Amino acid sequence: MRKPHVSSKAQIMSELQNVNGSQFMSGAQIMRKSQVMTLVKALVILGVLILAFSWQHALEASTGTKIAALTLADAINLAARQDPEVVAAKQALELTSSRLRESRGNTKPKISLQGSGHGTLTALPTGASTSSGGSSVTVTVSQSLPGVMPEPFSVGLSPVELSEISLQEVELDLAKTEQKVVLDTIAAYLNVLRLQQLKDLSNGAHEKAARLLDEVESKLALGVATRLDLLKAQNQLDQATFSLMRTEDDLCSAMRSLAITLGLPPETQFQLTDAFDVSEVFQMKHDEYELEELMAIALENRIEMKQANLSYLKVEASLETTKRSMKPSVSLFANYSHQDTTSFSASASLDLASGDAAWKASLDNQTSTEPAPDKGFARKSTSTVGINVSFALWDGGMANEKLKQAEMSLKIQEAAKERQKQAITEDVYTASTALKQARVRLQLAENAVLEAEESFRITEARFARGAGVATEVIDAAQSLASSESGVVETLFDYYLAQARLGKAIGLLGTEGWKK
Questions:
Q1: Which of 103, 275, 390, 454 is the most buried (most CB within 10 A)?
Q2: CATH domain 287-328+401-515 topology
Q3: Phi-psi region at 466: left, alpha or beta (left = phi > 0; alpha = psi -120 to 50)
């Protein structure tokens, strides 16, 4: 359905102000008739404008399609907010953050309040009865510090430290997902720009083919061209028409892919505001770096390398814990209690084998109607200090096997780190080489365009003077169109190669990849 034609404001004002000179005849009746006709025209045009405006909104409401101005930066931000993988990674990050807060809360002091009461009614043989009862309120303050003792009592990683490492790993997963989304968005955005440029070139090639066909038909009528020239010119126009149609279809498909990448309905249309030369967005200078410098940047910033380091840290801490568990377990403890109507007790412990520490204090207030005890059973204070030592004499070799497993796990993790380092180095080498080759191909493609433009200009001029044949012009036009398309393709490849190098060195999606 075609959108109804709407006159511009200047056309409307012109139609309202300009009236056929024949209407300006003498007589008030003719003047009033002219004014009425002018008013009718204004009302008709106003109605058309209202209908067109309503039609546009109805179309958008029914199809969900809107034309939006979109920069590359806006596209990246939009994809980072709406991409399902990014959303899932952010949810995982929030879950891990909650677990870290839980782990930290487990090491903080805890206060509890407990109360109880009881009553007893006793029947005597005389028929009388006695009653007794009591109540108590206990306030307890305690704190557990698992594996948080400083050197030399620390052993491996505490639960809080393990939770912090898990949070870092999830943060790295989120950053990796965001980098993937950024690269996908850049590729989809540039693909639309590339096809828009190719469409413009196809339009130009179609116009040249149509113009050549007109010239051949004119020369054929004058007898200076052959029927074969006409067939070749017509075939050239048909090919240009098909190429234009195919490019338009590819552009529609690229628009749909971009919309899906941004998490929008496929029918959404965009008006990309960046010119095809998006050098202001791609400000990377990494193609000017030496390969060794790029590899050093990658090993420092690649997410995979950071994840490998965290995994190695956990395995190393596990080995340390296993070694400490094979040594004698030594625990220190101390207790103090004071018993009275209000009693107080306190205790503390330290496990040198695990690095765990804990303390507890409680205050108990008791009231009772029972008879007071004899003085010989008066309440008193007690203090206790002691040490516990334990050592496994024989466990069936389980401890030694656990130690071997931990050592082997550490060696496996070391090998994994080295393989990851090699893979990152290879990625950087491949991406750097691809970028250098893309830059050279772009320069060669630009030179080819200059040559093709000059060849087409000469052959077209010779054909216009009757010194050439249509075949030469057709071949020159095809060569020029191919060269111009080659520049667009290589320019797109060059920009995409820059983004891929940014990802290879671990800086894509950060400010560092533009420096």
A1: 103
A2: Outer membrane efflux proteins (OEP) (1.20.1600)
A3: left
